[in-house]
Amino acid sequence: MYSFAQLIYKLSNSTKTNEKLQALVEYFLHGDEKDKVWVIALFSGRRPRRTVSGTQLTVWCTELVNLPIWLFQECYHTVGDLSETIALLIPEKSSYASNSSPTGGGREGASREGAHPLHYYVEKFQQLEKAAEEEKKAFILQSWQELNSRERFVFNKLLSGTFRVGVSQKLMVNALAKTVKLDPNVIAHRISGHWDPATTTFTALLSEQSIQTDHSKPYPFYLAYALEGTLHDLGEPADWQAEWKWDGIRGQVIKRNDQLFVWSRGEDLITEKFPEYAILQNRLQNGTVIDGEILPYKDGLVLNFNVLQTRIGRKNITKKNLQEAPVGLFAYDLLELNGEDIRHLALTERRAELEKLVTSLQLPWLQLSPVVAFRSWDELTSQRGQSRNINSEGLMLKRKSSAYLVGRRRGDWWKWKIDPLTIDAVMVYAQKGAGRRSNLYTDYTFAVKDGDKLVPFTKAYSGLTDKEFAQVDAFVKRNSLEKFGPVRTVKPELVFEIAFEGIAASNRHKSGVALRFPRISRWRTDKPPDEINTLEDLKKMLELYGK
């Protein structure tokens, strides 16, 4: 665990890509073989499932350090992170006291005597998943006392299922490429799919055999950057294909070895979530991979994403779910045909084969994502304005000669989203953030007017500069009216413009609406609170855009 904790510390405390890359290269060169497999898994989103609750961790920690719950809670509200609070409260053993802070300095060197490697802990988490509470407690208390504070912080993050690290999968893949001398695109493909870090070796994972033996393995998704510059910078309109940018779940449908697999872009195997697709197991040829968007779809219309959310996260999909939230698959691309990887072909060639395939299947819910016809950039700009009418986020622009690449790239694919919806609101509640913002009030709740009342309708915690966050934090501390645990009620004086991608009706919110991707667009220092928008304004938006 020591080496992994040191790696996390280096990655978390560097803002330079080259420094992070070098730290990963060093780890993959010298790290424990089994630990390296777990690092690949963790950095590509395969986190251990939560073994215990936050409440259990809190109680066990207070018992261990003989601290009253109220004082623990005060510490937690100050620190802003449960894992770090526990790591700081448990005393260090003198043998490694020099490494006492999960976020501060510490010694370098080999693992401490008596410390276990990373894989020991994460695999123990798996073994304890269904164990009795006392057995879990005994293991966790023992681990807390044998780990130093930095290791304990990482241990808690893994244990609670909240492990995050500011490293892209692309950076990890590039580090591996420098270590094992393989092309990054090859590595990205080999580490995708369904594999068990507990039983897979580092060598086997990166070998060609990993593709041959795992029939479910998806291809790395090709992603687009937001359009930079102007449309005219792209050159001739005739060189580009335009499609609607849909708001659903990006996925790959795979038929190999007489089996059907459905993968999300986040590399979750979601086949059982969409039983509608089961018919493809008999209708598709082996060696077929379709890239597309899973969308709520009924009677030839794409529905609001909010409809699809009623099925996301459910363990079991009922007949009622299927009726209330029917789905379609809008096919974008064909990546494999007759068992052959065709990603290297031009988009026009892949699209032609995709059109043949979808047409031959004649399934009403399986649609080709429509190509938007245009002759000039001005004409395309005009068509983009119709996006919200069909529940689209805007347009995708793809160079007709482009291959299907790996990851987010500039040049051949661009997303050109419509401008977000906006509304002016006043801040009414504030809460401290997490991580480096744990001492600042950076999580806010906003309200609109309803007659003489203020009605909260959304939360947001992004969109301001560090300087602006500090200024708002100072305001909150000077103007708090009430305290409810970590939340402060503040004087309703600060006005902000809130941007969001969509709006839907919601029975769970007092306002009656739910926003999609709300964030702070700007701080309206020019507008007084009595000029903010109203609940009626929100309801009019719901009528216009909440289809």
From TrEMBL:
InterPro entries: ATP-dep_DNA_ligase, ATP_dep_DNA_lig_pp_1105_fam, DNA_ligase_ATP-dep_C, DNA_ligase_ATP-dep_cent, DNA_ligase_ATP-dep_CS, DNA_ligase_ATP-dep_N, DNA_ligase_N_sf, NA-bd_OB-fold. It comes from Niastella populi. Keywords: ATP-binding, Cell cycle, Cell division, DNA damage, DNA recombination, DNA repair, DNA replication, Ligase, Magnesium, Metal-binding, Nucleotide-binding. One of its GO terms (molecular function) is metal ion binding. PANTHER family: DNA LIGASE 1/3 FAMILY MEMBER, DNA LIGASE-RELATED. The keyword Cell cycle applies. Residues 320-450 form the ATP-dependent DNA ligase family profile domain. GO terms for biological process: cell division; DNA recombination; DNA repair; DNA replication. It holds the Pfam family DNA_ligase_A_N. Its EC number is 6.5.1.1. It catalyses: ATP + (deoxyribonucleotide)n-3'-hydroxyl + 5'-phospho-(deoxyribonucleotide)m = (deoxyribonucleotide)n+m + AMP + diphosphate. This is DNA ligase (ATP).
